[in-house]
């Protein structure tokens, strides 16, 4: 399981700990709202999760779906999770205490704190550390189950990659690919699983805004005016793009529409309803390669090993960092002397690195640095690092890199579909009884 996902899960658990504290107070006997195989989902659990979702919507300034619809969606999500937990348990996927301890250590390190401080913060928020551990254990088990039953089965063939690249080339060579179109849009958002009445209301609102937009000379100013906070309407300037960088919906709808003209109908997508204006058009060559940013960096690595605690490694690297900052020492010389990495003889230089070539934690820390800047100590699965960025450059992907890009894009698309199919299959195979709930 990716460390970034574990951190996300842990933060979610902490973020909603205040809701779960209510479970520790005296209360009446809990009501069962659903039976999933041999497991139960209770009313307290359902209400806790609903409060969690409501907080997410409020934080992002999005309108909530109707209460009954939200309750149904949240209950279905809990049922899906409970089925996956049961499958993980029944198929022998276990997370030993020692492994869980290590995961929690990594989470603490990524939050630049100790396990004890993390524990204190969790308990201060009202969630017991024991429950935090068990919730995290379930998250890891479910992730391992998905990796085994879904991720491992998704393959991308060389023929599919060839077809993907060929299609991109055809698109670039086409008349559409040699033209750029500047678009701006007003989006009337729809929540996932919106009811028929919500869709109808949003559509009527979109049609009314479309009529008004036809009389406005400054479309962007008008769009910002109607996109008031909490209105469910947003304004987007998409800028000038080639057609291969636009959704197919906008490609098709904008054909034959001149510059400074509205697309003559309201468009509908999974995200909601769109009122789109063609701000301009221009011809021009299309880049045949994707341009990426590469980084030249160097590092000092102190590996995880017996006799070297995290605190000691972090302390030593902090001293090195301070010495470099005041010019009392040279980073390259320190790397040659102290780094426990194959790059040490070269002063810690890693060469030109492209996005995705380094472990995520290292890359995220590196990307935040300006040229010449030295990081704070960074912990990864390999050890503790001190990073310095030397240079950055723009470059085009090589033929091999284009194939890697194509493979990743195809795999992501296949994974999404495979995961949806898998969820439907395990839901159909499970025994689920939903009790009547208010």
What does it look like?
- By secondary structure, the protein is α+β, with helices and mostly antiparallel strands.
- It folds into three domains: 3-149, Orthogonal Bundle (Triger factor/SurA peptide-binding fold), CATH 1.10.4030; 176-283, Chitinase A, domain 3 (Roll); 291-396, Chitinase A, domain 3 (Roll).
- The chain has 15 helices and twelve strands.
- It has helices spanning 3-15, 17-20, 43-59, 67-90, 97-110, 115-124, 129-149, 158-173, 196-213, 219-226, 248-253, 310-325, 331-338, 360-367, 399-429; strands at residues 32-36, 39-42, 179-189, 233-242, 261-262, 267-269, 272-283, 291-303, 349-353, 378-380, 383-396, 432-434.
- Strands 3, 4, 5, 6 and 7 form a five-stranded antiparallel β-sheet that branches. It has a four-stranded antiparallel β-sheet with strand order 9-8-11-10.
- Helix 3 (43-59) crosses helix 4, helix 4 (67-90) packs across helix 7 (129-149) and helix 8 crosses helix 15.
């Amino acid at each position: 399981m990716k460390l970034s996902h574990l951190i996300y899960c842990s933060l979610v658990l902490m973020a909603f700990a205040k809701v779960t504290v209510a479970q520790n107070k005296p209360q009446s006997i809990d009501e069962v709202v659903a039976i999933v195989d041999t497991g139960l989902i209770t009313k307290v659990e359902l209400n806790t999760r609903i409060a969690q979702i409501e907080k997410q919507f409020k934080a992002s300034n999005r309108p909530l779906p109707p209460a009954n619809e939200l309750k149904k969606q949240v209950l279905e999500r809990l049922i899906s999770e409970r089925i996956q937990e049961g499958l993980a348990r029944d198929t022998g996927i276990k997370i030993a205490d020692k492994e869980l301890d290590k995961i929690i250590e990594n989470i603490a390190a990524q939050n630049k704190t100790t396990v004890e401080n993390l524990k204190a913060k969790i308990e201060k928020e009202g969630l017991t550390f024991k429950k935090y551990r068990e919730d995290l254990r379930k998250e890891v088990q479910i992730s391992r189950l998905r990796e085994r039953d879904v991720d491992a089965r998704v393959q991308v063939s060389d023929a599919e990659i060839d077809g993907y690249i060929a299609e991109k080339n055809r698109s670039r060579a086409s008349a559409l690919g040699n033209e750029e179109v500047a678009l701006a849009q007003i989006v009337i958002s729809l929540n996932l699983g919106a009811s028929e009445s919500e869709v109808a209301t949003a559509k009527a609102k979109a049609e009314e805004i479309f009529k008004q937009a036809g009389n406005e000379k400054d479309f962007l100013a008008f769009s910002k005016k109607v996109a008031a906070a909490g209105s469910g309407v947003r304004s987007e300037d998409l800028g000038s793009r080639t057609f291969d960088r636009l959704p197919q919906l906008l490609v098709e709808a904008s054909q034959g529409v001149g510059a400074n003209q509205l697309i003559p109908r309201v468009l509908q997508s999974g995200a909601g309803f769109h009122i789109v204006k063609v701000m301009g058009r221009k011809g021009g060559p299309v880049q045949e390669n994707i341009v990426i940013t590469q980084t030249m960096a160097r590092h000092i690595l102190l590996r995880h090993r017996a006799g070297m605690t995290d605190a000691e490694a972090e302390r030593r690297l902090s001293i090195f960092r301070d010495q470099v900052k005041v010019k009392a020492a040279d980073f390259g010389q320190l790397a040659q002397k102290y780094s426990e990495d194959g790059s040490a003889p070269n002063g810690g230089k890693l060469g030109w690195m492209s996005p995705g070539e380094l472990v995520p934690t290292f890359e995220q820390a590196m990307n935040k640095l300006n040229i010449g800047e030295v990081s704070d100590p960074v912990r990864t699965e390999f050890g503790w690092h001190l990073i310095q960025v030397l240079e950055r450059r723009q470059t085009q992907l090589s033929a091999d890199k284009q194939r890697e890009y194509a493979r990743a894009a195809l795999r992501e698309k296949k994974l999404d579909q495979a995961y949806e199919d898998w969820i439907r299959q395990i839901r159909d195979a499970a025994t689920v009884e939903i009790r009547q709930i208010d």
